[in-house]
Amino acid sequence: MSDVDFSALDAAGLNLQAVFDLAALPAAMREVLDPGGRYRQLILFGHGGRTLWQRVQAAGLQSEHPIDDFCIATVEAWFAAELPGCAHSLVYPGDAPVGLQALGRLAGWHHESPFRVGINAEWGSWFAYRVLLLADSALAPTPPLRGESPCVACTDQPCVAACPAGALAEREFSLAKCIAYRRQPDSRCRVTCVARTRCPVRPEHRYDDDQIAHSYSRSLAMIERWGG
Ligand code: SF4
Ligand code: SF4
Q: Which letter, b or e, does each residue of 38-70 get, where b requires 16 or more Cβ atoms within 10 Å of its Cβ?
């Protein structure tokens, strides 16, 4: 099977792709992803920067989860064009049995940031995981994205001081402080993360305010549903 053209995905804003050979993944991860040994590869699709949101807006989807729906349709169309007849199975969106950040670490996309969202030198914190597929493909595995965490050289850590809840003040991120603050009616973090927006890395990729609000209003809705 020859290599494929990822440019249609790039144009749609799904501009991060990582192909893994299942055989090269940690055994525990492989077992939960593909217990029957049915597939050869795992393909992770993500977006970096603003393009995906623009494409989703242009598509005008009237659904509950327009980003997910757009991404699944885009990946399925790409797969059908580039790998016709190749068996595959959608793992995410859905109840992915593995942590996406763990895969992001293997792909070189994810380094820890004080505010819990992953960060890398190419995109700052302005990237996300979108689709994960098992596939019976034989593509060239993707070398990990290179570069160390931008946080290593960030001595001032403006994100830490910016968090109005003090959730980053200790060595470990305090999810409890973050959630308690976000739920307050006058919170500055109901539809954003003030700390994240203060990070100076790759500001050219920062999401538009309406994309940030879309993403954080969804996480707040989940917090409020769980919190009663
Ligand atoms: S402000 Fe500095 S420490 Fe905080 S996420 Fe950005 S690079 Fe890392
Ligand atoms: S969402 Fe707000 S409270 Fe939570 S870590 Fe970000 S800045 Fe702090």
A: ebbbbbbbbbbbbbbbebbeeeeeeeeebbbbb
